[in-house]
Amino acid sequence: MTAQLLTTLSANLNLVKLPQHVAVIMDGNGRWAKQKGLPRIEGHRRGASTLKEMLRYCKDLGIKTLTAYAFSTENWGRPIGEVNFLMTLFERLLQKELKEMEAEEVCINFIGDLSPLPRSLQQEMRHSMERTKNNQGVFFNVAINYGSRHEMVTACRNIAQKVQQGRISASDIDENTIAQHLYTSASPDPDLLIRTSGEMRLSNFLLWQLAYTEIYVTDTLWPDFDSEQFDRALEAYQQRDRRFGKKVS
After folding, report:
1. Rounded to whole angstroms, what are the CA distances from 130 to 108, 119, 150, 215, 226?
2. Superfamily, domain 18-148+200-235
């Protein structure tokens, strides 16, 4: 970690007690653009830049995993022009940022049902995951066409098929079995969920994985969420007593 970065950290932040997995619902891009009299797409463009800075900050702090909710299964209901822009933005960002992600040891992984996405975008995703699969700096999950209920239904179907094929027994199914069939099987459950723009809901995001995750909500719109805002979220996390349902000693 650089000396310059250390000087920007809040004095109240304990670097030993940082979360190892942070998930974020990046809300408020459209409202940010509207407040500034800009098209909604400008909010998404600025939001992508914010996510890049947050990923870099996680790496510098030593936070191992960042999971970002980029596009939900419900987002297809947005205006077609906005959806098309987002698909193009995702693809261009992958083409533009891949070399830098490799240099910064980012391992990128896309979670969700990727099959309805444009073929060219799917190709860029596969290429990015293959090129960065051995990187160890920070593990970056990007949830695209992701819906947690769909994820769990898919997991149940895959498990049921294995039971039908005799590969596993129904009596062997436990929480571990389900977790291993989720999109996030390669990552530990998030320690901290950050939601911007003040909305107090999970929006069908990581419903299984967030069972004991600490939740932090801020009124700040995502494009304005910077390292200072992130420090505040981390400070709030460090003040929580994480008992995981256990009795206080």
Report:
1. 9, 17, 25, 32, 30
2. Decaprenyl diphosphate synthase-like (3.40.1180.10)
